[in-house]
Amino acid sequence: MTQGFRPQHLAIAVTLAALVLATAALSQSGQISQVTNPGVQARMSTMNRANAALSTLNDMMGGRALFDRDRAGAARKDLMAATKSIPSVFRKPHADPLSNARPLIWSNWRDFKLKAKRAQRAAWNIDTDSLSDLRQSLPRMVLACLHCHDTYRDGTR
Ligand code: HEC
Fold this sequence. Notes:
mainly alpha, Cyt_c_II, Cytochrome c, Four Helix Bundle (Hemerythrin (Met), subunit A)
């Protein structure tokens, strides 16, 4: 065993690696620039905004960017705003050939809204006081994104 090795360090490293992969999968885009339906564009841009904010935090968490409390706080606010607007941008079943939204959203609207609410709460619960607070609170945000995508978005995730 390497000096100073602790099993929990390995667990943290594995979790971080899994999160980085999950976040990469999350960010795959449905080519928003080629989408012609404005309603579909609006919901994709909400998602892309959430994704940009999440990437900022993820980079800090993974050590690819320096932890910056102000930037982290601003990203958290962006995530709160983006997740809050999910129900309103998805309410109408706008369609586009490039959309990855499953029709199940509108036959299961109540559950979809619940998943949006959970994501909103996870955004609110992101703790940006310090890097270690961020590391502890961000995974639940990522899981909330993935949890909705698993059910309501076509594609990898
Ligand atoms: C309540 C459900 C739900 C939650 C929560 C959710 N998403 Fe999405 N997301 C979707 C659906 C549905 C689509 C597909 C929209 C479409 O293609 O019309 C999507 C699409 C996306 C896209 C692709 C946008 C594009 O340009 O095609 C990204 C990136 C994305 N989400 C990131 C995130 C991130 C990051 C989070 C968490 C902060 C998140 N999503 C939370 C349902 C959700």
